[in-house]
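Task card 7
Instruction: Convert sequence to structure tokens.
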Amino acid sequence: MASGELTSGAYIKHHLQNLTYGKFPDGHWGFAESALEAKEMGFMAFHVDTLGFSFVLGALFLFFFARAAKRASIDAPSGFQNFVESIIDFIDDNVRGSFSGKNPMVAPLALTTFIWIILMNTMDLVPVDWLPSLAAAIGIDFLKVVPTTDPNATFGMSIGIFLLILYYSVKEKGLGGFVGELTLHPFGKWMLPFNFFLEGVNLLAKPVSLALRLFGNMYAGEMIFILIALLPFWIQWSLSLPWAIFHILIVLLQAFIFMTLVIVYMDMAHQKEH
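Output:
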């Protein structure tokens, strides 16, 4: 354990607590110094660590991919250019295989979600005490470094995708067509309330499943790393290394599943046969 001052339970709670900024019950704004204070701030509090790491990782993604595009060369492509092109070809193959409509935004959307989630997930491979210990050295009490272990981040992404689904459903099918799909499918007009219930649940399940699947898998992985960190030092390396190697698969797989579902859901939004 990195901190001998904390019990096992306190150590786990500390590492699962976000750096929270919000409004206190007495009206002033500031950073929460405990989980209770963070809870008292309510829904409008900001998880500064989640926002900070997600924005920085997103900016790194844009910077390096833009740099690869600006320095692209047909005659003498660099290794990084080949790497970026292989990722783009991979995304393009998945979009062509799962998306039957015509929308030039779907491939960039799939690329963005795939790379951004990989980068956020990869933060789970950083030893659990390194960054929180650095933060503590400069007076920051809490620091949760994996944005995708925060449901606010995963729901934020999935709600954004959900709004796009609604927008393109109405745009491609018309408002009447979209409402008809919700109320007349699959059993016809005589079962309208039942149809609306089934299709409404199916529609709302999309953002919920996107968010909870990613959050649940990454949160479980982080919890295992924290539990390993509680063990004696000589045991930690014998367990953390194999789990980290296995976790690389989870990091990539969760990003791939999220991206694939985004493509599939966007394809469903463009379908007009109903």
